[in-house]
Amino acid sequence: KVKSLSDLSGVGQNILNKLVEAGYSSLEAVAVATPQDLSVAAGIPQTTAQRIIKEAREALDIRFKTALEVKKERMNTKKITTGSQALDGLLGGGIETRTMTEFFGEFGSGKTQLCHQISISVQLPQEKGGLNGKAVYIDTEGTFRWERIEAMAKGAGLESDIAMNNIYYMRAINSDHQMAIVDDLQELITKDPAIKLIIVDSITSHFRAEYPGRENLAVRQQKLNKHLHQLVRLAEMYDIAVIITNQVMARPDMFYGDPTTAVGGHTLYHVPGIRVQLKKSRGNKRIARIVDAPHLPEGEVVFAITEEGVRD
Ligand code: ADP
Ligand code: MG
Question: How far is the CA of 265 from the centre of ligand 1 (A)?
Fold first, then answer.
């Protein structure tokens, strides 16, 4: 049975080296490549590339499935608690694996606090709403605080040093770096299959700063879309939950349309997933609302941000 690249027929040491050097270091990476890309990147004939891709797909069971099979797969989706039962309820039980969940809202609406909380929650045992898992935290704004992780770990009844060791942290310096980090994630996930959560907080800030205005919209959108699809692919391939955040501003200059349109347009439009809008309320209360999710009931819930973490 084919378990790794070297098991594919015709992939000897020579081709294997070329593939790995070109960034195709796993069956998954090869399975979703196009024959053209693979052939150019690895310097192998297109017919060979085609055959290798076909075999990788067979090995990974990438094929037409019946609706019943799809149902069974989706039933395997696992959930991570947000710390608030009300918010979990709104999400249909919690943050889902194999899914990208977007938290969007104004500055201070609780996006980063939720990211901290869920990177703790994922570590809990299943009966407490976790997956006994680890988290990857990609921070683009420099707002990650180990102090908050420590406090929330204690709040969740975890040993804080162990909990902090279960979070892989990286600061992304610019949008290219951010994309490169995600390019390389597959390797980390393969090495540490306990990873069950990937966070990008925020997904959009570098792209907005580097590609400002209408005139850059097309390029920004194109790059962001590639980035997002890569994240979705990781979620589906490895049964991982992906959380992204997106800061939006209330725009007093807008007379019509959604007053909380993402700055510079609906950049995240065409990628599947769950979008959750966050709003400030009184004191430590926040309001969450699900947007564009036909399979989830409409409505709003209130949750709180406390010293110990996110709560009802
Ligand atoms: P966003 O990422 O959406 O801009 P944050 O998630 O950073 O917003 O939320 C910041 C808010 O979180 C603060 O205004 C405060 O209300 C709350 N917060 C931050 N730290 C603590 C803490 N130690 N205890 C209680 N609440 C906190
Ligand atoms: Mg933030």
Answer: 26
